[in-house]
Amino acid sequence: MGTGQVGDPSLDQFVAGQNAAPQNGELMQTLWRTRGAALLDKIGPVILQTHSAGGPFGFIVANDRLETSAPGIYAIGDVKGGPAFTHISYDDYRILADNLLGGAGTRTTRRLVPYVVFTDPQLGRVGLTEAEARQQGRPIRVAKMTMDYIARAWEIGEKRGLMKAIVDAETDQILGAAVLGYEGGELMAMFEIAMLGQLPYTVLKEAIFSHPTMAEGINTLFYNFQD
Ligand SMILES: Cc1cc2nc3c(=O)[nH]c(=O)nc-3n(C[C@H](O)[C@H](O)[C@H](O)COP(=O)(O)OP(=O)(O)OC[C@H]3O[C@@H](n4cnc5c(N)ncnc54)[C@H](O)[C@@H]3O)c2cc1C
Q1: Number of domains in the chain
Q2: Where in the sequence is the domain holding 185, given as residue range(s)?
């Protein structure tokens, strides 16, 4: 097991490219947390391809395994462009660790990208918007409902906002959802879990959620398709 400190033979081998990957997560974590600058000094100048106009200009080009144009150099987090969120940076770390430690070949293409705008009330979003789904030419159905349909919203005096879900008309899979309302981020995550589990919307429509909770609104939402 390497220590990641100066003189650690496994670190020197890694820097010299003699080891394809760090031996374990501990070494990798130590490398980047305490040895990053020294590591870069040892590697010397590296030219990385960046995006030109028409893409996320100036950001480092990385593929779906976060590999840059320079072998052995990865770009994670905001530097590669795309969604700039803490949870995406963290997920990039999972992909990097998977790459370096010989995992299952995880890629950025596998992930849903949720986000929350912490306004009052919150806006939580995940998956495709209605416009994106239509641009893709998908057959969709759109469910929409204002938050004042929810008993809990009345009880706590938080009736502002609405929920919206985009469903594939052929498979009943949920393609995306938006919740503008009280704890919209938490409610959005319920849709996200259903999407991760590839649940058809009908399961959420008929699911038993405790009364009175905001979650009950998800039952009602799927009785409110626009078509
Ligand atoms: C005001 C604000 C609010 C935000 N709110 C949210 C939010 O609510 N939710 C959310 O998901 N995201 C939020 N974000 C975005 C989120 O902070 C970033 O997406 C995330 O921090 C990116 O992580 P990162 O590791 O790529 O970069 P960073 O977290 O920026 O880390 C980069 C690190 O590199 C260091 N560094 C820079 N240059 C050098 C150098 N030359 N040598 C050595 N070290 C260097 C920096 O000091 C920094 O510590 C917010 C961003 C801002 C600015």
Answers
A1: 2
A2: 115-221
CB 56 near ligand 1, within 6 Å:
no
The pLDDT tens digits of the residues spanning 119-159 come to 999 999 999 999 999 999 999 999 999 999 999 999 999 99
- What confidence score (pLDDT) does residue 10 get? 45
Among the candidates 102, 135, 158, a domain finishes at 102
Q: Which of 113, 109, 136 is nearest to 124 (CA)?
A: 113
Q: How many angstroms separate the alpha carbon of residue 72 from the centre of ligand 1?
A: 23
**CA separation for the pair 174, 200 (Å, rounded):** 6
Q: What does each C-alpha distance from 176 to 123, 128, 147, 165 come to in angstroms?
A: 13, 5, 18, 6
| Residue 84 CA to ligand 1 centre (angstroms) | 8
Dist CA 178 CA 159 (whole Å): 16
Residue 108 lies in a domain: no
Domain boundary, last residue among 55, 76, 102: 102
Which of 34, 209, 100 is closest to 219 using CA atoms? 209
Q: Is residue 3 part of a domain?
A: no
